[in-house]
Every structure is written in structure tokens, then in C-alpha cells.
Design goal:
heterodimer; A: 234 residues; alpha/beta; Rossmann fold; 6-stranded mixed sheet; 4-stranded antiparallel sheet; 8 helices; 10 strands; disordered C terminus; B: 288 residues; mainly alpha; two-stranded antiparallel ribbon; 2 strands; globular
Amino acid sequence: MLEVTGLRSGYGRIPILMGIDLTVRQGELIGVFGHNGMGKTTLMRTLAGHIRPTAGSIRLAGQDVTHAPPHLRARAGLGFVPQGREIFGGLTVRDNLRMGAIHSREPDRIIAAVLEEFPRLKPIIDRAGGVLSGGEQQILAMARCLCAEPKIVLLDEPTEGIQPSIVEEIGDTLLELRKTRGLTVVLVEQSLEFIRKLSDRVLVIQKGTFIREVAADGIAALADEFVGMEEAAH
Amino acid sequence: MDLAVVVLLQVLAAVASLALISVGLAVIFGMMRVINLAHGEFIMLGGYAVIYATRWGINLWVAMLIVAPLFVGLVGVIVERSVIRFLYGRMIDTMLATWGLSLLLIGAATMIFGNTTTGVSAPLGGVSIGQYQTSIYELVLIVIVAVILIGMMAILRLTKLGLIARATMQNPAMAASLGISTSKVYSVTFGAGAALSGMAGALIAPLSGVLPTMGVAYVAKAFITVISGGAAIITGTLSASGLLGTLNTLATFVATPVIGEVALLFAAIVLLRVLPQGITGKFFRRAL
């Protein structure tokens, strides 16, 4: 589904990613774990096309998108739920979803289906995106992304700054969506607990490169090892 | 009584004319944060488009409402594709480039059309209100401006194109990640803004005549209106031109036209001191 080889990028002349190799199979949920400043968000933004890679290649569903601009990657099936959620604050929840389904032939059907998966959005459908709580915005950002019916979703720190009850709800919804839609996801997180609950494999990123890969059953061990780091990060 | 009606109509005409000359600039500035210093020359091109179209036998209304906006809109798209798109996010560079374009257009127009005022006579004649006389065309102009603003509001609120425009205006990067080609949106927006400016030039041509340097007279007022209005394109243009146009006319009425201009500029300065983000930076914040 997604094949990344030797990917390098950065801001201006400051290199951040130092050669990332990543293969995501259909239906897989890959967790990327790392601390602040290790290149998680840079990786997501490079995959989404907002930062130009300086080396390496990105293939999406067999198509080379290394140098494609963001909107062509989106049309090729890449969904992006960015850090900070990036809701259109002046648009209503419904219009945010309509933006997600903007290239669809039957936007109404898709929005109705997505609302069934995210029932929390139903009572606030006509409210402006900017007045929603952080958790509601996060849910809206995920719902908006799914309205585009993406083949793969990049999910950047969905739990950041969100109250625990909603973090749990987001986790449950993601698990449910994997079952019903067979969703393919790359999830970037600082919360080991969240990443452990959802991921098939976890890649640990440090200084712009993956230093380790851990399978689902090894994540618990990773937790013990990184627990000190996680506390240090807070 | 008659006097009150006449003054009211003059206020409305002043507000409409301010809104008309500003709305094209408001679209380009509000949507793209591009300061288009060639705005006045887009108005001038609209004026010449109407003069030449009518000389070739095209009906005046068709020339004003269709030919001029199409022609200037096309010029706008060409300018955006060949110059502006390389300068997004570089405000000073865009100002310099559009200033250069403004000088180039004035020079070219002077060379081609000569440095004289060309006119086209105002249609529809006059009407008397009691002992006063006013031109029907000015009244029709008020209606046309209202229709333009309502039409823009409808497009932004009700159409898919409007949704894309609003979303791109708020967050271009996220719009791109949802599959929107922001460069296409900008190109269309710039063209639409230019077309509106062209229509403005065409509609004021019968009142003021057309001259290669006429843009200079309008660009300052248009900027003052747009900056005073703030971020919301339509509400901002309407509220700022409402306030400034009313003050201008009333001051002109009690004193002289010069005092009227001074009142307008003074009001704009006070307004920006009190509301640095413009009227819609403080009020009607969710409006368009």
C-alpha cells in the first residue's frame, strides 16, 4: 500500500529525516513512536507532500508520488489527519465533512455513513468547527478524512491535548473502523498506551531514522523500556 | 422631504460606488492575502473595454456587464499565471511586482489610447424628485452593486465552488490535503477579483470617463475600504463602504467635497487605530 525507501527531508538546509524505510501493507496499522524533535511530524508532512523530500522515494498503491503535490497524493488515496487537527474553523461541521467528500459523486451518502461511525458529530453538525472542543475537533478531523474514502490514513498525534475519556473513544472508534473498513493507518504517537492498544507493529523513530521495529506482542516490553523516557517527556 | 430623499440616494450611491471599486480588491486580498497594486489599472482596463466594445456596436449593458469583466478577468488569470503565482507568501515582492504591472499598464494604455479622457454617455437619462434632478443610471448602479454583493454571497454560501473557496481561504494546506488544487483556486480567485474590478471600471465609465491614469484615483480609496473592512470579503466591504461612504456624503453635504474626502480619510485612520484588524476583525467575525 505504502512503500517508502531512503526518505530524507527537512526544513530548508536543516535535515530532519535521515533515511526512512517503511512498508505498510493493506489493512495494517503501523505505529510510529518517538519523542519530540525526533522527526515524527516531519515524516508525516513529507508523506503528505507538504515538505519536499531531498532523497528517497514514496510509492502509494503502486504509484510513484515522491514529487507529487499534496492534492494529487490526496486524490491518489492518501488521507491526512494532521497534528493540531487543522479544522476549518469558520465552516460548520457539515461543511468540513463536505470538504472531505469534495471529489465524491455522492457526498450526501458518504457523509451520512461517516456520521453513523462518528455519532458524536450528529448533534453538533451545524456548529462552526472553530467552537468545538479539542476532542470534538479531533473526531471531526478523522471523520473529514474518511469522507474522502482514503486507501491509507496518516494520523498524527490524535491524542495530543485531549481529555482521557475522548482518547479512549477515539481508540475504540479506530479499532472498530479497522474491523469494518479494513482501514490502513500510519499512526504517530507519543502515548505508548494508545499506540500499544492499536498497532500491529511499532517503529521507534530517533534522530530522523527508525532504530527499531517491534511486533505487536513485543510492544509491552517496549513499554517497560521506554516508560522512563515517556515520563521524562512530560 | 425631497431633500432628505435626495441626500439618502446620494449616500446610497456613494456607498455603492465605494463597494463597487473595492470588491474586486477585497476578493483578491481576502482570499489570497495578495496586495494588488495594479487594482486601479484593472478598473481602467474595464473602462476601455466598454468604450471599445460600444464602438464596435456592442450594446452598452452587454459591454459593461459581460464584455468588460470577461476581458479583465482574462487579463487577471494571465497575470496570476505569469507573475503572481511565483510570489505567494512574499507580500513585499508581490507589491513590487503589481506596482510594476500598474506602471506598465498605465504606460501601455497611454501609448495606445492617448493621454485624454474618453467618455461614453450615461444611459437612461434623469428623473426629478420634487425640485431636484438625479440620474436614473446612478440609481440603477445602486441596484447593480446590491445584486453583485448578494450574488457573491450566494456563490460563497451555497455552491461547491464557494465551499472550496472558503475552505482554501481559511487553511490552504489542509484544503490541499483534501485534494484541492490550491493553485487552481488562486488562479480562479485572482481572475474573479480582476473581473469584478473590470466590471467596476466599466460601470463607472459613463459617470467619470476613462483615462489611462484613472486607476490612481480609485486604488487608494479601494485600499482604505478593504483594510477598514477587514478579513470578511463581503461583510467587510459592505460595512466599511457603508460607514465611509455615508460620512463622505454627509460631510460633503454640510461642507464641501474636499471636506468630504478629508472626513473619509480621517474616519479610516481613527477606525484602524481603534480596530487594527478592520471592522470584521472585531464584529461579524464569522461572516463572509
